[in-house]
């Protein structure tokens, strides 16, 4: 097991590297500062928890932010080796920084859902997609037998949202999902559109599944898992 200081330095180095790459994209650094920091006390706490809860052999890994973290995936998939690798508030840069530990276990499947926090920070779509590119490249290089599923970013319910920075993001969500679908096709990955079960007719998160406008209720997760089973992804 790596020492905490070594792990912290690795995370910090990865974060700074991602920031430099992001800022260099198309000369974007010339005009805009991008908040790509992901290291915070909660992130570090979750990393310690992950160290104490190794990913089982041949696992199905759910990877993402708080929407993933809140899911009781192991309970919903009895008999399946499952690992929850969600961290509240995480962004694509943070997922990249902790990807090596996941890929070292050679998981059978990874269900990825990440991007809403990037959008809330106004990280450009091009940089989010660049990070997806880096992620896919590393999966193929380090664990080529792992099947990666790209899940659509969930919509928001504006009427329930309290933070102003989260409001009116649904057009950006739609745009990113369109790009993610094309991205998945390009890389011959499975794209999972979750909007048929979680979006209403106006494209907002369904009220019956919405906890606070961004997170989904406990009742949403069994529906989510059933949908994945019906589509034969699980």
UniProtKB/TrEMBL annotation:
Keyword Signal in record: yes
Q: Which PANTHER family match?
A: SGNH HYDROLASE-TYPE ESTERASE DOMAIN-CONTAINING PROTEIN (PTHR30383:SF5), THIOESTERASE 1/PROTEASE 1/LYSOPHOSPHOLIPASE L1 (PTHR30383)
Q: Report domain SGNH hydrolase-type esterase positions.
A: 62-221
Per the UniProt entry, the signal peptide is: 1-29
Source lineage: Bacteria, Pseudomonadati, Bacteroidota, Cytophagia, Cytophagales
Source organism per entry reads Rufibacter quisquiliarum
**What keywords sit in the KW lines?**
Signal
Question: Does Signal count among this protein's keywords?
Answer: yes
> Which molecular function terms from Gene Ontology are attached?
phosphatidylcholine lysophospholipase activity
The identity of this protein, by name, is Lysophospholipase L1-like esterase
InterPro entries, per the entry = Ester_Hydrolysis_Enzymes, SGNH_hydro, SGNH_hydro_sf
């Amino acid at each position: 097991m790596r020492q905490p200081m070594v792990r912290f330095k690795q995370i910090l180095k990865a974060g700074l590297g991602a920031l430099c790459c992001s800022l260099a994209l198309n000369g974007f650094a010339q005009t805009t500062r991008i908040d790509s920091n992901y290291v915070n006390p909660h992130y570090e706490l979750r990393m310690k928890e992950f160290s104490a809860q190794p990913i089982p052999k041949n696992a199905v890994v759910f990877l993402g932010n708080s929407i993933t973290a809140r899911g009781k995936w192991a309970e919903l998939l009895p008999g399946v080796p499952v690992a929850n690798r969600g961290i509240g508030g995480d962004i694509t840069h943070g997922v990249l920084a902790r990807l090596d530990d996941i890929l070292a276990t050679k998981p059978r499947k990874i269900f990825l859902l990440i991007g809403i926090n990037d959008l809330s920070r106004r990280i450009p779509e091009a940089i989010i997609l660049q990070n997806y590119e880096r992620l896919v490249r590393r999966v193929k290089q380090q664990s080529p037998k792992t099947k990666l599923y790209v899940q659509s970013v969930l919509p928001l319910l504006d009427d329930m949202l309290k933070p102003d920075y989260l409001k009116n993001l649904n057009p950006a969500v739609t745009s990113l999902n369109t790009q993610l679908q094309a991205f998945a096709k390009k890389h011959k990955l499975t794209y999972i559109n979750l909007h048929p079960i979680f979006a209403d007719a106006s494209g907002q998160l369904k009220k019956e599944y919405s906890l606070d406008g961004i997170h989904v209720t406990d009742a949403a997760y069994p529906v989510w898992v059933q949908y994945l089973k019906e589509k034969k992804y699980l």
